[in-house]
Amino acid sequence: MSGTGTFLVYLAKVLNLALTIYFWVIFARALFSWIRPNPYNPLIRLVYRLVDPVTDRIRRMLPTRLGMVDFAPFLLMILVIFLQELLTRLLLQLAIRI
Predict the structure, then answer these.
(1) CA dihedral sign of residues 9, 15, 21, 23
(2) Which residues of 46-78 are buried (b: 16+ CB within 10 A; e: fewer)?
(3) Is 92:1 a contact under the CB 8 Å cutoff?
(4) Which residues contact residue 8 at a Cβ distance below 8 angstroms, ignoring those fewer than 6 apart?
(5) What pTM, to 2 d.p., does this model score?
(6) In whole angstroms, what is the distance from residue 42 CA to residue 48 CA?
(7) Could you tell me which residues are beta bridge partners of residue 69?
(8) What is the residue-wise DSSP string for the chain?
(9) pLDDT digits (tens, 9 = 90+) for 17-61
(10) Distance (Å, whole) CA 13 – CA 91
(11) Any idea what the Cα angle at residue 53 is, between residues 48 and 58, rounded to 5°?
C-alpha cells in the first residue's frame, strides 16, 4: 500500500472515531431533554451547540414531533450511522485501489 493509501486508511479511522463520538453526543443531548441538567454548565452548553443547529434544520425540513416525542435526534443518529458506514467504506476501498 502506498503512502496515500495509508493516509486514507488513517483518515477513515479518524472519521469513524469522530462520527462515533458525535453519535454519543447526540444520544447525550436526547437524554438531557429528559433530565434537564444545568444549562449553564460548559459541557452541557457544548453538547447543545454541537447538536441543536443540526436537529433544528431537520425539524424545519420534516415534521419530527409525534405528540410529546421529538424524533429529530433519532433521525440525526440514523444519518450519522449512514454517513459513517458510507464514508469509511468508500475511503477504505479507495485506499485499497491506490
Answers:
(1) negative
(2) ebeeebeebbeebbeeeebeeeeebbbbbbbbe
(3) no
(4) 91, 92, 94, 95, 98
(5) 0.91
(6) 10
(7) 66
(8) --HHHHHHHHHHHHHHHHHHHHHHHHHHHHHHHHH---TTSHHHHHHHHHHHHHHHHHHHHS--EETTEE-HHHHHHHHHHHHHHHHHHHHHHHHHH-
(9) 999 999 999 999 999 989 989 999 999 999 999 999 999 999 999
(10) 9
(11) 120
Q: Are 47 and 25 in contact (CB under 8 A)?
A: yes
Cell 437524554, located at residue: 31
Enumerate residues 6+ apart whose C-beta is below 8 A from 45: 39
**Beta pairing partners, 70:** 65
Residue 60 corresponds to which cell in the numbers above?
424545519
Whats the size of the chain, residue-wise? 98
pLDDT, averaged across the chain: 95
The residue type found at 7 is F
